[in-house]
C-alpha cells in the first residue's frame, strides 16, 4: 500500500528497481549525522541525487508520499474481504483507506488486534488491544519470542 523503501522509482519514465545500497548515492552519505545536528535540509545539487539506471532521470524512494494514491488498492480490498484477522500495528487509525480495514474485517466476522504505544482512534475496533512497544509485544503475541 505504501510501497517499499528499497524500491527506487524514476520520476521521468516510472522505472522501478530494487536497490538496498546505503547510501543510495554518494551525496547522501552522512546525512544521518546532519539530521542529528539539526541540519534538516542539507544543500545537495540535483546533479548529485540518485538517477534512474534506465533513462537517467531523477530517482526517488518507491514509497507513497502524502497526497499520492496508495498502491494495490484492488488487491488489498480482496484480501480484506477474505481476512479473518486484522493486525493493526503502530498507527493512529485516522488516515483512510487503511483506517477502514479493521472495521471491514470485523464487519465480515473477523477479529482485530491492535498494537500501539498508546491509545488511538482505532481502539474501539479492537478485539485485542496491546499497549506498549510493538517490537516487543508483537513477537510475544505471535509466539515468536518468549
Automatic annotation (TrEMBL):
Gene3D superfamilies documented for this protein: SIR2/SIRT2 'Small Domain (3.30.1600.10), TPP-binding domain (3.40.50.1220)
Record bears the keyword Cell membrane: no
Residues passing through the membrane, by range: none
GO CC entries: mitochondrion; nucleus
Residue stretches making up the Deacetylase sirtuin-type domain: 1-146
Subcellular location: Mitochondrion
Active site: 2 (proton acceptor)
Record's keyword annotation contains Transferase: yes
Binding residues annotated for Zn(2+), in chain numbering: 10, 13, 52, 55
Organism superkingdom: Eukaryota
GO molecular function, one term: NAD+ binding
UniProt keyword list: Metal-binding, Mitochondrion, NAD, Transferase, Zinc
Protein family per UniProt: Belongs to the sirtuin family. Class I subfamily.
PANTHER family linked to this entry: NAD-DEPENDENT PROTEIN DEACYLASE SIRTUIN-5, MITOCHONDRIAL-RELATED (PTHR11085:SF10)
Protein name: Deacetylase sirtuin-type domain-containing protein
